[in-house]
Write a structure and sequence with these properties.
5-stranded antiparallel β-sheet, globular
């Protein structure tokens, strides 16, 4: 129930709070340039946001099925995921992931 969500770290409410906090902490997520990945692929929505040294990569599986996706650069840190912290090439149904490169770390590419 909605009344229980503030006390549940895995709740949708707390996930959205984490997303908002991440957005506030990242110039790239607020103001960065956008580059979409596999824009024509049904059920997969992914993009890079870049502002100076701040770079993020967001992946969403918008389907009810597991989805094979490009692996994020190992230099990127998974900073928020809706399904814990997997780093494999299969996303669970309706899973989201946000990766971030820290300033001074090597900028990579999708593998």
């Amino acid at each position: 129930s909605a009344a229980e969500q503030p006390d549940d770290p895995a709740s949708v409410l707390n996930h959205y709070r984490s997303l908002l906090a991440l957005r506030r902490s990242s110039r790239a997520l607020r103001l960065g340039d956008v580059a979409f990945v596999d824009a024509d692929r049904a059920g997969y929505f992914a993009w890079f946001r870049t502002a100076g040294d701040d770079r993020c990569f967001v992946q969403l599986n918008l389907t009810a099925e597991p989805l094979q996706v490009p692996d994020a650069d190992p230099a990127a840190e998974l900073v928020l995921g809706s399904h814990g912290s997997p780093r494999d090439e299969t996303m669970a149904p309706y899973e989201s992931r946000v990766y971030r490169w820290r300033a001074g770390r090597t900028r990579g590419r999708l593998t």
